[in-house]
């Protein structure tokens, strides 16, 4: 016997696979390829149920039109994509959802559920149309029918909701499927009204039977069962009990029951939810072992690993990360670290959270010792089964030494190039000096011999200074501090440079305090630093002669806590941009006439003494270098 007709509205070839299955189940099938054709067929045949494909053009408007024509029609929506996505979009418009291709048994179960709903709607309509002529008992039947329909929908929606919650958790669906949650609704007469599919599968179809029939022992009575206890105490309860499955197996469970009240405040229904304690214990033990294995693997990785949530909060760190950067779990990553290398919001972590894709890049972080370290970061998105990004795993590898090696190699190449030019100039100067000496000797011209000797001495001095700078840069030696009379030390420096300064027609003005001051310094290194600054002052005065007399002031000053040296010249001065760069390695304001090592070495020497070196200069107004040394630097740094 053919059942009532089914209208299928589907533009895809799935209709050709659904139709034979429906015919085999006893249904008469009418097909439509578009929304317009579907509405016309619906108006003609008025079927009690309709199957529509979610991908059909205009499906939302079509379903609204069908509902306006018949509010009781049952709509089954099919899809070839994720059924959760379709349910979220069309929930409230469609009554049932089915993923294609579907097994015949699944399709039959869904249709039987739709048939049952249609029959219930028809009974309600029949009772409603003749309500005034029916007795009070018939009215009660209508209310009970409506209540039963609502209860069944509550249980079904609750099961769907629990499933969606489990899916949204990482790995949650796996445990949800392994752990049976039994959900049921009972009335105040302790009668089972509705239950979810897991309940029916494990405990059998007990609809309209006693609520206590599944329990063993003292819980197997009306007053002792969880539902009976909730009705008596009128409160939410947690009850330990022993349940007998349909197979005869007895399982201990924890039962949660809660009353549902009507508009008058009386208990009308009781919801009952429980899960097997053995299953819970098994999964808990499995989870514990899995967690232990995860922790061991997580901490055994030789790289630093951190796990962040979508708000950049640190959820987990491994042992190596903790050793390098400290304990920072629970804090926001960018509150702890201010990564360099990338502009704001362009680092690999932020890009992964924005795009949901793996990224990599270099980040500059500060470790436990306060040092900046170059870290190469690889990110991996952690997503739920449905594809939602929930966390980001970041693996860091320290590439600081690699970057230092690259910088050293680059500096070495630059130094070789710079020194080659400078050494070539010195050799050219030596050749010129030797030529003057040679020609003056054979021609008996003493003036030319003296000129050649001066040129040769100048080139030798340049080579000596160049070699000393290279030696210091190539291998920094530790300080060798000793107590010295700082005033006498400054006088020795003046004696070394005074003839050179005055020979360049530059007025030299040393100024020292009268009192004797003893302090601890490395005299050889500090002498090198001061000679570098004075030599630079001499050269800038020669290259940029002033309208008035060129002058270099060399001052030593002393106070209670520090000692200072000031070297001020009347040379050409420097712009602010040059001032910011003069202490950089291989930066020189002299073009090919300088190596760019001298001032770099000078600042390193001052820093080794825990001192500071500052410069004030303006174009056309000369330059002023100031060194400040703490009088007890060696004791402070010890």
From TrEMBL:
InterPro entries per UniProt? BphY/WalK/GraS-like, CheY-like_superfamily, HATPase_C_sf, HATPase_dom, His_kinase_dom, PAS, PAS-assoc_C, PAS-like_dom_sf
This entry's Enzyme Commission designation comes to: 2.7.13.3
Q: Which GO terms describe its biological process?
A: osmosensory signaling via phosphorelay pathway
The UniProt catalytic activity note for this protein reads: ATP + protein L-histidine = ADP + protein N-phospho-L-histidine
Localization annotation: Membrane
Answer yes or no on keyword NADP. Answer: no
Q: Which keywords are on file for this protein?
A: ATP-binding, Kinase, Membrane, Nucleotide-binding, Transferase, Transmembrane, Transmembrane helix, Two-component regulatory system
| Membrane topology, from the record | Multi-pass membrane protein
Q: Where is the PAC domain?
A: 359-411
Q: Name one GO molecular function term.
A: ATP binding
Using the UniProt record, name the top-level EC class of this enzyme in a single word: transferase
Spell out the protein name for this chain: histidine kinase
């Amino acid at each position: 016997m053919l059942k009532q007709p089914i209208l299928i509205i589907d533009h895809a070839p799935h209709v050709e696979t659904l139709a034979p299955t429906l015919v085999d189940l006893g249904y008469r099938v009418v097909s439509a390829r578009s929304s317009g054709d579907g509405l016309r067929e619906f108006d003609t045949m008025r079927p009690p149920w309709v199957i529509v494909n979610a991908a059909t053009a205009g499906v939302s408007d079509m379903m609204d039109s069908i509902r306006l024509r018949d509010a009781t029609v049952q709509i089954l929506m099919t899809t070839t994509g994720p059924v959760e996505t379709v349910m979220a979009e069309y929930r409230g418009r469609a009554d049932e959802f089915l993923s294609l291709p579907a097994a015949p048994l699944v399709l039959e179960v869904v249709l039987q559920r739709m048939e049952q709903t249609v029959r219930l709607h028809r009974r309600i309509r029949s009772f409603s149309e003749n309500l005034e002529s029916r007795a009070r008992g018939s009215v009660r039947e209508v209310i009970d029918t409506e209540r039963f329909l609502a209860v069944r929908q509550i249980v079904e929606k609750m099961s769907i909701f629990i499933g969606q919650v489990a899916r949204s958790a990482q790995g949650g669906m796996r445990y949800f499927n392994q752990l049976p949650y039994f959900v049921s609704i009972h009335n105040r007469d302790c009668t089972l009204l509705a239950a979810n599919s897991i309940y029916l599968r494990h405990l059998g179809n007990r609809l309209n039977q006693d609520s206590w029939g599944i329990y063993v022992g003292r819980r197997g009575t009306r007053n002792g069962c969880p539902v009976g206890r909730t009705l008596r105490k009128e409160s939410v309860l947690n009850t330990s009990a022993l349940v007998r499955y349909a197979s005869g197996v007895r399982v201990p469970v924890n039962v949660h029951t809660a009353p549902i009240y009507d508009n008058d405040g009386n208990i009308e229904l009781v919801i009952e939810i429980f899960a097997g304690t053995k299953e819970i214990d098994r999964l808990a033990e499995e989870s514990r072992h899995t967690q232990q294995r995860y922790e061991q693997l997580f901490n055994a990785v030789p790289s630093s690993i951190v796990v962040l949530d979508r708000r950049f909060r640190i959820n987990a760190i491994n042992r190596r990360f903790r050793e390098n950067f400290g304990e920072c779990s629970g804090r926001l990553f960018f509150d702890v670290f201010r990564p360099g290398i990338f502009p704001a919001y362009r680092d690999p972590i932020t890009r992964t959270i924005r795009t949901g894709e793996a990224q990599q890049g270099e980040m500059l972080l500060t470790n436990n010792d306060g040092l900046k370290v170059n870290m190469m970061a690889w990110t991996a998105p952690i997503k739920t089964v449905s594809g939602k990004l929930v966390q980001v795993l970041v693996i860091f590898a320290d590439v600081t030494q690699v970057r230092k090696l690259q910088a050293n190699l680059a500096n070495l190449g630059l130094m070789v190039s710079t020194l080659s030019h400078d050494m070539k100039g010195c050799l050219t100067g030596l050749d010129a000096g030797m030529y003057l000496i040679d020609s003056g000797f054979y021609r008996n011209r003493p003036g030319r011999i003296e000129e050649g000797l001066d040129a040769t001495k100048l080139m030798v001095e340049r080579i000596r200074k160049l070699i000393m700078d290279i030696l210091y840069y190539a291998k920094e030696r530790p300080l060798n501090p000793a107590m010295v009379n700082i005033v006498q030390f400054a006088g020795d420096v003046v004696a070394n440079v005074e003839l050179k300064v005055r020979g360049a027609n530059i007025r030299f003005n040393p100024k020292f305090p009268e009192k004797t001051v003893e302090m601890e310094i490395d005299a050889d290194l500090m002498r090198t630093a001061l000679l570098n600054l004075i030599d630079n002052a001499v050269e800038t005065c020669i290259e940029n002669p002033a309208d008035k007399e060129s002058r270099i002031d060399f001052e030593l000053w002393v106070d209670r806590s520090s000692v200072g040296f000031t070297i001020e010249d009347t040379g050409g001065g420097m712009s602010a941009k040059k001032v910011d760069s003069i202490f950089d390695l291989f930066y020189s304001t002299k073009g090919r006439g300088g190596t760019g090592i001298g001032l770099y070495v000078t600042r390193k020497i001052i820093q080794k003494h825990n001192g500071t070196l500052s410069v004030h200069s303006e174009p056309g107004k000369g330059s002023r270098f100031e060194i400040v040394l703490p009088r007890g630097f060696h004791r402070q740094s010890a």
